[in-house]
Specification:
The protein has a single domain (1-354), classed as 2-enoyl-CoA Hydratase, Chain A, domain 1 (Alpha-Beta Complex). The protein is 47% helix and 11% strand. The chain contains 16 helices and nine strands. Strand 1 and strand 2 (15-20) form a beta hairpin. The longest helix has 18 residues, at 82-99. It is globular. The two termini are 29 Å apart.
Length: 354
């Protein structure tokens, strides 16, 4: 869609519509999109003609596959402050969405990962279409499940959030709805009609309920016992030991899951588990400040750049993690990622007056 803006805004009836418009890039979130969306949300929050905001995406493959990781890699490699600046502005946007004073509806269909989760899951209403494929795969590129993952993942049922954080496991529509990532499940082919209804409705619950269905293909119920049993371990090593020790009907799943974890960055795995532990009892804003502390250190390290090189730049899928084993990452090392930044903490003031 050459010549068209990468994010579009339109008032239609009682709704303010946001359209993520980079379908060829799976609607990956750029700094420009963040910088356009935040002030538009502020404007609509004060506009009496706008009753609610609807976020949708162009194309059928993805709602938003995450942040523009290649751009962040290039900025980081060059020492450009825009790399850290992107995260600061993105996290401020995530926080504003969480606080938003009006209903905020995300119409999610196709791939939703990372940054796409950040502009959807914190809204009041998350509608999952039949093509939904949710994941937080950051440990596979030397990053960590951010954009509020520290807050929302530990609040999923049982240890589902910890499983998702460590493995990057993918959830379809039914599991997204069952776990609470989505608030409603609507067939993809009904999204157009739903959007039209949202232009005029004064009764969001009734409209959403009239379009919603209950998908029958959820996998989480059959996995809950083994997920809770294994991922309640207090360390990554203990989680792997429990997976390795599984017998009976869950043994094959546990073996595959353990193999998946062992491919991830050891440092990222330990960061992610610490996130789940500290985030379970922290409020949203503290979680966002925590993530900003961690990303400050990640952008000065090795893992993220090596992970992106292996997966996105060279595409050899053979990252050289340093350290390359869990035993090489100490609790003290992880403490350093989470340590306060002093004067450099994330500023969450003035979110409604950019």
């Amino acid at each position: 869609m050459t010549g068209e803006p990468e994010i579009q805004f339109e008032k239609r009836g009682r709704a303010g519509f946001v359209t993520l418009n980079r379908p060829k890039a799976l609607n990956a979130l750029t700094l420009g999109m963040v910088r356009a969306l935040h002030p538009q949300l502020i404007e609509w929050a004060a506009d009496p003609e706008v009753a609610h905001v609807v976020v949708q995406a162009a194309g059928e493959k993805a709602f938003c596959a995450g942040g523009d990781v290649r751009q962040l890699y290039d900025w980081g490699r060059a020492g450009d402050p825009l790399a850290l600046g992107f995260y600061a502005e993105e996290y401020r946007l995530n926080t504003y969405i969480k606080r938003y004073a009006k209903p905020y509806l995300a119409l999610i269909d196709g791939i939703v990962m990372g940054g796409g989760v950040g502009v959807s899951v914190h809204g009041s209403h998350r509608v999952a279409g039949g093509r939904t494929m949710f994941a937080m795969p950051e440990t596979g590129i030397g990053l960590f499940p951010d954009v509020g993952g520290t807050y929302f993942l530990p609040r999923l049922p049982g240890k589902v959030g910890t499983w998702l954080a460590l493995t990057g496991a993918r959830l379809g529509q039914a599991d997204a709805a069952l776990s609470g990532i989505a608030t409603h499940a609507v067939p993809s082919e009904k999204f157009g009609d739903l959007a039209e209804q949202l232009c005029e409705t004064r009764d969001l619950p009734a409209i959403l309920e009239s379009f919603s269905e209950t998908p029958a293909d959820a996998t989480i119920p059959a996995l809950r016992d083994v997920v809770d049993r294994c991922f309640s371990g207090s360390t990554v090593e203990e989680i792997l030991s429990r997976l390795d020790s599984e017998t009976g009907g869950d043994a094959e799943w546990a073996a595959k899951t353990a193999a998946t974890i062992r491919k991830k960055s050891p440092t990222s795995l330990k960061i992610a588990l610490r996130q789940m532990q500290v985030g379970a009892t922290a409020d949203f804003e503290d979680c966002m400040r925590t993530e900003f502390r961690v990303v400050n250190r990640v952008l000065k390290g090795h893992e993220f750049f090596e992970g992106v090189r292996a997966v996105i730049v060279d595409k050899d899928n053979a990252p050289n993690w340093k350290p390359d084993s869990l035993s090489g990452v100490s609790d003290t090392d992880i403490d350093a990622f989470f340590a306060p930044l002093g004067d450099g903490e994330l500023d969450l003031s003035g979110l409604d007056r950019l």
